[in-house]
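Example for tutorial group B:
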């Protein structure tokens, strides 16, 4: 018997397209979040980044989760669990000058 997967069955990464098939996915993830405010901000930043990478990074900078520093953003991209590899690629491929600085730092 096939069971319907729940959001808790997935990590927030390359399975991000699952969200589009299950509209309650994001709300379930946020309900499961019983952590501190800063941890909630990080998880919300991950969700936003996976949906819209540039907007996610800008939001994290605005909430002071990240500094507007290419090295810090690269650290976030490399070490944060749950980021979609596809979204990371989209962010690094953006022709914006700042994104290109991040790309240079990422590849060095």
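The residue assignment follows.
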């Amino acid at each position: 018997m096939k069971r319907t997967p729940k959001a808790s069955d997935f990590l927030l990464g390359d399975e991000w397209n699952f969200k589009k098939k299950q509209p309650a996915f994001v709300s379930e993830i946020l309900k499961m979040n019983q952590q501190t405010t800063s941890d909630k901000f990080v998880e919300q930043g991950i969700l936003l980044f996976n949906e819209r990478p540039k907007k996610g990074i800008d939001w994290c900078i605005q909430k002071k989760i990240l500094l507007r520093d290419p090295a810090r953003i690269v650290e976030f991209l490399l070490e944060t669990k749950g980021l979609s590899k596809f979204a990371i690629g989209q962010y690094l491929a953006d022709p914006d000058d700042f994104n290109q600085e991040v790309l240079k730092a990422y590849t060095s």
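The domain at 15-107 is CATH 1.10.220.20 (Annexin V; domain 1). Compare this with the pattern of hydrophobic and polar residues in the output above.
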